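Q: Structure for this?
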Amino acid sequence: MTNAFSGPGPDAVFAAFLAGGRFMLQQCDDCKKYVFYPRVLCPHCGSPKLSWQPASGQGTVYSTTVVRRKPEQGGDYNVALVDLHEGPRMMSRVDGISPHEVAIGMAVRAKIIDEPKKGKLLVFTPAQGGAA
Amino acid sequence: MKITDLRGKTAIVGVGLGGLPSAPERSSMEIQTEAVHRALADAGLKPGDVDGLFTGSSHAFMPALSTAEYLGIRPKISDTTMIGGSSFIGHLLPATMALQYGLCDVALICYGSNQGSGFGKLKSMSEPQTYEAPYDPRHPITSYALAAARHMHQFGTRREDLAEVAVAARRWAQLNPLAFARDDLTIEQVMAARMVNDPLSTLDCCLVTDGGGALVLVRSERAKDFPKPPVYMLGTAMAHWHRQISGMPDLTVTAAAESGPRAFAMAGLTPADVDVVELYDAFTINTILFLEDLGFCAKGEGGAFVRNGRIAPGGSLAVNTNGGGLSCCHPGMYGIFLLIEAVQQLRGEAGARQVDNTHIALCHGNGGVLSSQVTALLGDASTL
Ligand SMILES: [Zn+2]
């Protein structure tokens, strides 16, 4: 457990992990639930005792949409909500297939990429073996 | 004091609209003030009679200060709680409490915006959400598209059902001379419209228009002294469970499932008692979600419920009788227009779109991305 109220806050710690190529999640020492996005207090039980754990990277697409965009501006892209194996849900994107082929229930795996102008970005790709 | 003690204790005695259907070269404050003037005139009052101010804005950082200065009034209490487009229905609660505790005698709720003419697109003061922004969601449509996609996946809701909501709203708008969009509209046209965020097309989205609204509230004991038939606040409740769409526990269940039952309990009513239903239809999926969450049909059956013109003029349930955010107006935040339409229906002032024998109206406001939910039940004198 890191001290919740001094030093770099959870946002900065998460960003530093990500910049180093690691996807880390907070886990509550008291109720054992996982937390995302990173917080100072556990939203499940109010405890400030949150520890960083490596994420499994496994997830399932909870919902998905195709944001339509003109081809000259980069074309259509995906935005998805992914339920992580550990419990929390996050917004992300499924890469590696057409945005139109991303489907609810699809098993996906986290991947950290270098995104132009954004730096490290956490995305997902279809997991080996297809549906969850 | 129990919350049910507030039932019927506050009355709306004046309503006014401004800037509809459009108001080019007029500022947000000018549009709001037109609505305020009409609402005060409706109640036989002057600006100086207002001593409680409840307002919200997407153009002013301190909207109570700006509004009071512009009107030349000195409120004894102001509240500008910002929970998105549902804020103005939410303001019924502090306004009622302020009136009942004698903090003020005349409460004004107001809003105005020139988003249609001034910007041509939705102007949001919302800050980017740190953990969503890197994926470039379009605010707010991407969030609503994710909810619609999940509802379709889980319950078999069809795009045709979403289109049915847009067509019903348009048919009501065709009966409303102040509505912005009144051309004929078919399910086929909605289905064929340009896709923006799957499964939502341009015609699944609310308008971006100019518009303002205002309401004047007093304690019920003096409501009969005003020129128009009073409309009574029977129950109001709010709930919010998340801020950003990734924080919404179940994208098919909104916090209306909590605000609705609490508002009904405060009013001592059930959905079967409601004569007209005014729902915040920022997108077509909203109407379906709120009909379910408020108890007009079972969860998952909203798509089937709206089929065959059921919520259109002549259907069995009158929903969004002014044409809604989809076809009447949507100047950034729409909640206040739900209340004004309900008052006009309860007074019998709604002209060609008047629903017969209307005694009880439900207004349901939505804010953020299905985030804040506020339900209000209003009634005429027969409901006291
Ligand atoms: Zn905990």
